[in-house]
Design a protein that fits this description.
By secondary structure, the chain is α/β, with parallel strands linked by helices. It is built from 27 helices and 26 strands. Among the domains are: 142 residues; 286 residues, no CATH class.
Length: 742
């Protein structure tokens, strides 16, 4: 019962294998999509690494923008002194840059604590120690922070602040105004928390105030930078954006969002662009931009100590005049080093310079709002294109097809980046394709393995090994449950088996049958036959199922001749001579796994099967080893054959011409057969015409040249002729013999 249940289940799975393969591929696709939508999706990490690779392969051309960096580098620290420098020194730097004509002096530094080296602090410590000072002292001149603040006020200076959710400090009032079209940016930009700010004495006189935050991703690499930050509902520009505003002398920023004039209202408030003076910067929905880096090691840079040397400073006018000057540090110990897609260690001030250069050059990269939806749709569509052909093509062909699609996806991503400056992710789409292919192909291999095992178990015992292998490789050639097709059918039976088996015990009889059936089966399998069944001493076999065989009739005829040769060899070594009769017929049959759900057999049924059995039975009446129906003889090729008679077998109204196979092609060309064939044909023609006297004479002539194994046949005709000559030719004689026995 277990085997029967397995057979039923496996037969069902076999019929549904394509569906199973498709469903498995779809399940893999669904799983990948589910992962991509989860909070723990790994795709973003791979995605940005691909975007980084794009930048390394095709960096942004340097825009030659009016941006220069004043670097507090290791050399400056060595010559000026350790950090922090006195604020009076910072004031000298600021005034020097202003005197050289800087369009904006931008500080990538936060001065959040008072200057500990200020003379005013030293005086206070002296007073606290009881020292009496005489004379009038201008305390403002002795306070380095005040001195620095005055220098900031004299020049177009932009100060920085840091926003963080972990601090509670209140940020200073912004220096710039913000107007907007569409939704209020404060309603959808994320809150940034409190501020780490400069001393009020420094922020107060400044021309501009910008946010220093980069917002690096989890791997620490700076890829996106917010252009606008939201601190308690108050909007602050980034340091780079504020530097541009101050350098142009503009007073406000214009933020354009969804729902603004000329922009679609998507129902989701989002930022589209920011205008700073004459420059419009496209942004992501959250007000950030993707930084498109150049491959230069660093922007035009001046070592800070050079500006503090009057002789060297005079030589720097061309580098400073009219430019935006960013003041920051690359010194290792000052810890303002960041990672970018281009380098593992870059001074933070250089990133601000990159952003300004990117805005001024007008070359930017973006990831459109519709990109994620498009990638999702592409992943599903292309995965379906991979899943659908899996059951129909080889694994190699499916892999090549998937590889081609992935190459197209990668090319599309690269082309979008280089030609359209768009960031489209090939990772998610490629993984979806690979997962669908991998799971679908694995299931296909498992299903194919089960199909192959089923085929070998079902056909291995009665089908030629070569055909079993072919069928195992292509189980689609097998239609379970039955199909109509043309077959050539063979029935073989031992003559006089009852007499032959007399005196044999069961073991000896079994040995006799096995000795006979084994060589007969070998010949049949060598010629591509399917063994239908063994019926005691009889064999039923057929050709052209389950595998298509174009020359199935010819193969069957060759098998018959070799079976006779094999029998002769078998008889030569045994005292008990075995004689057989073989019948062949070709016609339409229903062939397939026939039987019950508990037990079935691959077999053929139909009228052509019955006719083949009747033909085999007629070999006894005609005294020949084999009889072949006209339909089979027509496909026998160049074999030597003789027409035996026209017979109306039991159960049939239409007569069937019968032939016997005499030999192969070489035999057919022999002079003896040619003479025999002509004489035999003359005898048969006059017999069918009813000219009995002439038929008897022709019969006598053909007997003289006929081989011994055909004499029984001619004896049959001799008796018929004598009987009809004695009793008269039957009324309406048409030359057809009506068989009375099955």
């Amino acid at each position: 019962m277990a085997n029967a249940g397995f057979s039923r289940i496996f037969s069902f799975l076999l019929r549904k294998s394509r569906t199973i393969i498709w469903l498995s591929g779809l399940a893999a696709l669904f799983f990948v999509c589910l992962i991509s939508l989860s909070a723990f999706s790994p795709f973003e990490r791979f995605q940005v690494q691909v975007f980084d690779a794009y930048q390394r392969l095709s960096p942004r051309p340097y825009g030659e923008s009016p941006v220069v960096v004043v670097d507090i580098d290791e050399e400056s620290l060595a010559k000026v002194g350790q950090w922090p420098w006195p604020r009076s020194t910072m004031a000298d730097l600021t005034d020097q840059l202003g005197a050289l004509g800087a369009a904006a002096v931008v500080f990538d530094i936060v001065f959040s604590e008072p200057d500990r080296t200020s003379p005013a602090r030293a005086l206070n410590r002296l007073k606290d120690a009881g020292v009496t000072l005489t004379g009038e002292l201008d305390s403002s001149k002795l306070d380095n922070d005040v001195v620095f603040g005055e220098a900031i006020g004299r020049n177009p200076a932009v100060m920085g602040l840091l926003l963080s959710p972990t601090v509670t400090g209140k940020p200073p009032a912004p220096k710039s105004g913000v107007s907007y079209g569409g939704a209020d940016p404060a309603s959808y930009l994320p809150l940034s928390g409190g501020a780490i700010r400069n001393l009020p004495v420094l922020d107060g006189p400044a021309t501009g105030l910008g946010v220093l935050n980069f917002r690096p991703q989890l791997d620490g690499i700076v890829r996106r930078v917010p252009m606008i930050a939201n601190a308690g509902g108050v909007l602050y520009p980034s340091l780079a954006l504020e530097a541009l505003r101050v350098a142009q002398g503009a007073s406000t920023f214009l933020v354009r969002g969804t729902g603004a004039s000329g922009e679609a209202d998507t129902g989701v408030a989002a930022m589209i662009a920011i205008k700073a003076g004459n420059f419009t910067i496209p942004t992501n929905a959250d007000g950030s931009i993707w930084v498109y880096y150049t491959d230069r090691e660093k922007p035009p840079t001046i070592s800070a100590h050079q500006l503090l040397d009057p002789v060297l400073a005079d030589q720097l006018s061309d580098q400073v005049a009219g430019n935006i000057v960013l003041l920051g540090t690359s010194a290792q110990l000052l810890l303002d080093l960041r990672a970018t897609p281009m380098s593992a260690s870059v001074a933070g001030v250089n990133i601000h310079a990159e952003i300004i250069d990117q805005i001024l050059s007008g070359v930017s990269i973006s990831r459109p709002d519709w990109a994620e939806g498009m990638e999702f749709f592409a992943a599903i569509a292309l995965s379906l294109l991979v899943i659908l052909p899996i059951p129909f093509f080889t694994v190699a062909a499916n892999v090549l097809w998937a590889a081609l699609l992935i190459c197209l996806v990668v090319f599309a991503g690269w082309w979008s980046f280089t030609d359209l400056q768009m960031l489209l992710d090939p990772v998610f789409i490629s993984v979806s394709i690979l997962a669908s292919l991998g799971v679908g192909s694995t299931v296909r291999l498992l299903v194919s393995e089960n199909e192959e095992r089923f085929v070998r178990e079902a056909f291995g015992r009665y089908l030629a090994p070569s055909l079993v292998n072919q069928l195992a490789r292509n189980p689609g050639g097998l239609v379970l449950g039955g199909e109509d097709r043309e077959l050539t059918l063979l029935f073989c039976d031992i003559r006089g088996f009852t007499n032959l088996s007399e005196g044999l015990n069961p073991t000896e009889l079994t040995e006799l049958l096995n000795n006979f059936l084994t060589p007969m089966t070998d010949v049949l399998l060598q010629h591509g036959a399917t063994i239908d069944k063994y019926m005691g001493d009889a064999i039923m076999a057929f050709w052209n199922a389950p595998i298509d065989q174009e020359d199935h009739a010819r193969s069957a005829c060759h098998a018959v001749l070799e079976m006779q040769t094999a029998l002769a060899e078998l008889n030569s070594g045994h005292s008990r001579e075995i004689k057989i009769g073989i019948g062949l017929n070709t016609g339409e049959c229903c062939v397939g796994n026939l039987g019950s759900t508990q037990r079935f057999n691959y077999s053929a049924i139909g009228d052509a099967v019955n006719v083949a059995a009747r033909i085999e039975a007629l070999t006894k009446q005609y005294g020949v080893v084999n009889l072949v129906a006209e339909t089979t003889a027509a496909g026998a090729g160049d074999l030597a054959k003789l027409e035996i008679d026209r017979v109306r077998v039991v159960g049939r109204t239409e007569p069937t011409s019968m032939f016997t196979l005499v030999g192969d092609n070489n035999h057919k060309k022999s002079a003896g057969f040619i003479e025999l064939e002509a004489a035999h044909h003359r005898m048969l023609s006059v017999y069918h015409s009813g000219d009995l006297e002439t038929a008897r004479k022709c019969l006598a002539d053909v007997k003289k040249i006929a081989p011994d194994d055909l004499h029984p046949l001619y004896s049959v005709y001799s008796r018929r002729i004598e009987d009809m000559m004695a009793n008269g030719v039957p009324e309406n004689w048409d030359g057809v013999f009506v068989a009375q026995e099955k």
